[in-house]
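Title: Prediction job returns without error message
Component: structure pipeline
Severity: low
Priority: P3
Assignee: unassigned

Description:
Job completed but the reporter wants confirmation the result is attached to the right record. Sequence as submitted:
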Amino acid sequence: MNFDPHETHALMDIAARPAQVFVAGRGSWLVDRAGRRYLDFVQGWAVNALGHCPPQIAQALAAQSQQLVSAGPGLFNAPAAALAARLAELSSLERVFLCSGGAEANEGAIKLARKWGQVQRGGAYEIVTFVDAFHGRTLATMSASGKPGWDVLFAPQVPGFPKARLNDLASVEAALTQQTVAVMLEPIQGEAGVNVADDDFLRALRRLCDERGLLLVFDEIQTGVGRTGLLFGAQHAGVRPDIMTLGKGLGGGVPLAAVLAREEVAAAFAHGDQGGTYCGNPLMAAVGSAVLQTVAAPVFLAGVRERGEYLSRRLSDLAATRGLPGERGRGLLRALNLGRPVAAQVAAAALALQPEGLLVNAPRPHLLRFMPALNVSFDEIDLMVDMLAEVLEQAG
């Protein structure tokens, strides 16, 4: 039987995808099989930190693929050791576990916190998480998440995740019990529509956890690796967590994530408590080091901040012109409030623009989210806003 490589019927139907089949990408642009171009301000949901097919990744993959692709998790390899050492240096968290995706990293962080609770807090296991949080799609990370409806989707949930409200310290204190071991949150709730945790709130959480002998866990899957204009989102508040997870931008487009932890916390793990077939894969680790070499440079991060401020101004101007409520976010993770539940229709119309389409994300009925490449050009930001203005004008 002959198969058309562009046919999609054999793929499991798990998402409402547009009909286009994409075959190429470069920088801020995607190309479908008909040759039509799309300005991409989603970038794989904040994954492609350096845009599509950056030379740093192509070169790292080509070089490492000729040296060692996989040694297995039971052996050391040089690229994994180098990436872990660099992450430890940049974060001041001494131990690193490399894995393949954000949910896997958050699952690892949950396991580490619970194991630490067994060792240090008499079996305490509850982790306070937050309403509207998103931590992944495994059973445990879905239970830790606060996305509406997920409490029944694959019931029964994994127990032990009482919910507090973002930027409400009293709600966190009310959720604490004798069984609490940690507080876990995103510095910015991306999937909820770019809800930013106040810097003062993060500092208050650090003090609270220190006073109560609890771990503070930051899920920086979306905010880490330069997305907010600093290397890690929590750095805006000057807060050091006990455990931090990274993903998405760390691999710049390849499957790579990490759990970082303080030495004394990581010591709770015994041999065999954590692992995975592709954990510390040298091919992916080499890419991670190449991405960090670019993104961690102070001049690059300054450029992210400059672009983020420019995108914020352009979106604010658009909101003022259209009479919209406004925009919010940090760095190059931003949202535009449309003031009415038309975000999905606006995103679909943007995709259908002629002669070139625009990719934006609608995480909530009234919100559009923007996650461009960290090196997106100012001209591309202008073009995106002009294209979006055209769509909003057509929508009325």
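Comment from assignee: result matches the submitted record. The longest strand covers residues 180-185.
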